[in-house]
Design brief:
Elements: H1 4-13, H2 23-55, E1 105-110, H3 116-126, E2 133-138, H4 147-150, E3 155-158, H5 175-180, H6 182-187, E4 196-201, E5 205-206, H7 208-215, E6 225-227, H8 233-238, E7 250-253, H9 254-269, H10 277-288, E8 293-294, E9 303-305, H11 308-312, E10 321-322, H12 337-350, E11 358-363, E12 368-373, E13 377-382, H13 387-390, E14 397-399, E15 425-435, E16 440-447, E17 467-472, E18 487-491, E19 498-504
Parallel strand pairs: 1-2, 1-4, 2-3, 6-8, 17-19
Antiparallel strand pairs: 4-7, 5-10, 6-7, 9-14, 11-12, 12-13, 13-15, 15-16, 16-17, 18-19
């Protein structure tokens, strides 16, 4: 006997049904009912689900039974708020440390025992105990300073042995490794209340009050590497425009010095091919990610010859340092370099902020151009030269490679006047004092006696002027304002052969024009 289910299935497959009805009619009826049932089921399900979405919009994307878990702050619209910042503990609030003064600086001077007897005379000019702190790092023993020198020189120490470090530069000297480690060795002395480490050579002279002014612009609690480039474009290409040149001096903030000390020895080992100490320092700064902050008052003076053109047209920035004093001529004529620098300390004490700052004015009656580099020199030139020309240094010097090539400088220069009538008459600082009655400095400049070429212009020659007297009120806040050149004014003089000039802050609406 056949199975009933099997029998029904056979009947559906059979060409003829039991009742003689064709199989196509039975099949169509069965599938029509099945299709209708499916459509009704899907429709009911869609209606129910749509009603559920409309009733609960917040769950339209993530149903309650979903396996995706969200943070509680995103479960409902009402709870979506930004996280609150964590409060800073009271102990971490940095109080105002106050302005930096000279006692917060620690000088590290790189020197050589073989040159010490001569170079120490440069250091005596600017370093003063006990308000200043510093260490001279030498490569060997030197004779002990006498009692007078003890009060005018930093302490002297011998650098650590650096023979373990590789040095492969064939043109340089491995003392560069020793000098580059001055910051780390000075830091390890553990001196207290140090904000800045200032590096320089033993033939570098600092104007310390201006140095403090510059450093007060920056937060010593942050990472700062402050200095300037070489005057030589080629030097900057060979080494780096991102490097502070060590002879001109540079400053490193205390926390940066701490970070440097931790890695410097490893860093030095990675750069045996570098030439000097300052490019090794910059390589380590690059690894620390700290760029050079440029201050144009640090002067490497990679030049030969006479600095007059550079000093007489100093940029509008504090005069901080000068270097290579054994290479260039004395900054004042007919004296030694040490004597010249000692003369410079007179205006330095009277008004350090204004030292070497250039002012340009005109004597309209005589049709003369006058340039005052306060505390250094005055120039009188026949004819009218624009301030734009006067603020460019004249090329009284050769570049570091002893070529008269004006393209080799990293700044604009102008040639020495070719017209014999426009060769400047130069007056160098002779003496300076402070006049209490006037509340002004009175600086005197005497004409430098030298033969001038014949001039056929029909105008009064500046040779009739033997002396220039400049009145200037001290301005210690000069660099707390926006940078601007001082203005100078020619005053009436009752004395033949003497020109009187007033230098000071430009008045409202005052312009340097003829």
């Amino acid at each position: 006997m056949k199975d009933p289910d099997k029998l029904i299935w056979d009947q559906m497959r059979s060409p003829k049904s039991v009742n003689g009805v064709g199989s196509n009619h039975i099949t169509k009826g069965f599938f029509s009912k099945l299709t209708l049932w499916l459509i009704l089921s899907v429709s009911v399900t869609y209606v129910v689900y749509t009603f559920k979405l409309v009733s609960h919009p917040q769950n339209c994307e993530y149903p309650s039974d979903s396996h995706i878990l969200l943070p509680s702050s995103f479960q409902t619209q009402e709870k979506m708020t930004l996280p609150k910042p964590k409060p800073i503990p009271e102990s971490e609030h940095a109080s105002d440390p106050g302005p930096t003064n000279i006692s917060h600086l620690l000088f590290g001077i790189g020197g050589s025992a073989s040159l010490w007897e001569g170079r120490k005379n440069y250091i005596k000019i600017w370093f003063k105990k006990p308000e200043m702190r510093g260490i001279v790092w030498l490569d060997g023993d030197v004779s002990k300073a006498d009692d007078d020198e003890e009060d005018s020189l930093p302490d002297v120490r011998i650098s650590e042995d650096t023979s373990k470090f590789r040095y492969t530069n064939k043109q340089g000297h491995r003392s560069a490794i020793r000098i580059s480690r001055i910051v780390s060795e000075t830091l390890r002395l553990g001196l207290k209340d140090v904000r800045w480490f200032v590096l320089g050579d033993d033939d570098t002279v600092f104007v310390t009050e201006n140095l403090v002014r510059v450093l007060n612009k920056y937060d010593h609690r942050e990472y700062y590497y402050i200095g300037s480039n070489s005057e030589s474009h080629l030097q900057n290409i060979y080494f780096s425009y991102a490097m502070a040149y060590g002879g001109g001096g540079f400053a490193i903030s205390y926390p940066l010095a701490v970070a440097l000390e931790k890695m410097q020895d490893r860093c030095i080992q990675r750069y045996p091919v570098l030439y000097g100490s300052d490019d090794r320092m910059q390589a380590c700064m690059a690894e620390l990610g700290v760029p050079l902050t440029k201050e144009l008052g640090f002067h490497q003076y990679d030049v030969y010859g006479n600095l007059f053109g550079l000093l007489a047209a100093h940029p509008v920035t504090p005069f901080v340092s000068l270097h290579h004093l054994d290479v260039v001529e004395p900054i004042f004529p007919n004296v030694t370099q040490v004597q010249a620098l000692q003369r410079l300390t007179i205006p330095m004490k009277l008004d350090s902020a204004g030292l070497m700052q250039q002012s340009v004015c005109y004597n309209k009656a005589m049709k003369w151009t006058i340039s005052v580099s306060w505390g250094f020199a005055v120039q009188i030139i026949r004819g009218v030269l624009s301030p734009r020309e006067m603020e460019m240094p004249t090329r009284t010097f050769l570049n570091w490679y002893r070529r008269a090539d004006y393209t080799a400088y990293a700044f604009n220069t102008r040639p020495v006047a070719r017209n014999p009538c426009q060769k400047p008459f130069v007056y160098y600082l002779s003496k300076a004092r402070f006049d209490k009655n006037r509340n002004q400095t009175v600086s005197e400049y005497l004409r430098h006696r030298m033969q001038h070429p014949l001039c056929r212009w029909r105008m009064t020659e500046p040779s009739t002027i033997d002396k220039v007297i400049v009145y200037k009120e001290p301005d210690p806040q000069l660099w707390t304002r926006s940078p601007r050149r001082n203005c100078c004014r020619v005053l009436k003089s009752r004395t033949n052969g003497t020109m009187l000039i007033n230098v000071g802050v430009c008045r409202g609406g005052e312009v340097i024009e003829v």
